[in-house]
Design brief:
328 residues, alpha/beta, D-Maltodextrin-Binding Protein, domain 2, 2 domains, 5-stranded mixed beta sheet, 12 helices, 10 strands, 16% strand, globular
Length: 328
């Protein structure tokens, strides 16, 4: 065998060995080298969108590339999730969504354009804050017991910011537990829901404090219960469901808002984004958003977020299955 032939064979063998090495996605070159897209499963103006924009601005500054937020509401955030699930795991496409997208939707919909357990990587997570149940100014109830008595006597409506979300589950579970007649009314986001509550189009609604704040100040919305273990510092006079004697899981379990990437993304990229999010939580404007919405001071890291959801996921799935909801 001549020297030329030996060199060619050795080169071929080297290429073959390299082709089997498990390079992580995005490790072949510098990242980022182009704009990053963050898809939000809800309209502008709600908590999910506000958090996405609050954290994407410092992310852009730290990474030196534009981070563009794109709202794709609809179908319980499945349109947005399906879009991101099909994207390349190269660090240029991410998803901001809520817990129902990854948990309840698998029960609520027979067909989904994504697998919540296989198609995504956890990046960073946020608690959903305080989501009070509020009634309109013309509704003559002040406590949860009075609300249930009203809903037993007549049909009432409860707005939610998307089908399959916590407020939807709450309405159906109250009906099941207490024989009430609550109709769940679905919206694409909080803004139109609170507008309808303020105008008397619906009896009650569940959502974030800042989104309902203008209507609280005008007296057109009145919170009567908070579904958290402790009272909200923003609504210190409003008792929790538990304080009012309602202790079933639906009255205390909390959801989350999270950032995800397509499965297979480099752990280095996830770690870098998560670290920037931790730093960004100390920016005064971002801290104010956390305070306004009653959120914990820091986001969860990818590992903390995944662990948390693995703990609460069975509860959400069991509740959705128990209620027997189907949305398609």
């Amino acid at each position: 065998m001549n020297d030329t032939r030996r060199r060619l064979l050795r080169a071929a063998a080297g290429i073959g060995a390299l082709s089997t090495f498990p390079w992580p996605a995005g490790a072949q070159g510098a990242w980022p080298i182009k704009p990053i897209r963050v898809v939000v499963g809800f309209p502008a103006g709600g908590l999910t969108d506000i958090l996405a924009r609050a954290y994407c601005e410092p992310l852009s500054q730290k990474l030196g590339q534009p981070v563009v937020v794109e709202n794709k509401p609809g179908a319980g955030s499945m349109i947005a999730a399906g879009d991101v699930a099909k994207a390349a795991p190269d660090g240029y496409t991410f998803l901001f969504t809520i817990s129902s997208t990854m948990n309840q939707n698998r029960i609520l919909y027979k067909k989904m354009p994504y697998d919540p357990d296989k198609d995504f990587a956890y990046v960073s997570g946020f608690d959903a804050g305080h989501l009070p149940l509020a009634v309109g100014s013309g509704v003559k109830v002040n406590t949860m017991a009075e609300y249930i008595d009203l809903a037993r006597r007549e049909r009432v409506t409860m707005g939610n910011y998307s089908a399959g979300t916590y407020p939807h589950m709450l309405a159906l579970q109250i009906n099941k537990l207490y024989g009430t007649k609550i109709d769940a009314v679905h919206y694409k986001g909080e803004a139109p829901m609170w507008a309808d509550l303020a105008s008397g189009q619906i009896t009650s609604a569940v959502g974030s404090i800042p989104a309902m704040s203008p209507h609280l100040q005008s007296g057109r919305a009145r919170p009567i219960a908070v579904p958290t273990a402790v009272r909200s510092t923003r609504l210190p006079d409003v008792p929790t469901f538990v304080e009012q004697g309602f202790k079933e899981p639906v009255f205390v379990i909390q959801g989350w808002i999270g950032m995800f990437a397509p499965a297979g993304i480099s752990r280095d990229i996830v770690g870098r984004i998560s670290a920037i999010h931790q730093e960004s939580a100390d920016i005064p404007r971002v801290k104010q958003i956390h305070s306004n919405f009653g959120l914990r001071e820091k986001p969860w890291t990818a590992e903390e977020f995944e662990k948390l959801n693995n703990e609460i996921k069975p509860v959400w799935i069991a509740l959705a299955r128990e209620l027997g909801i189907t949305l398609d």
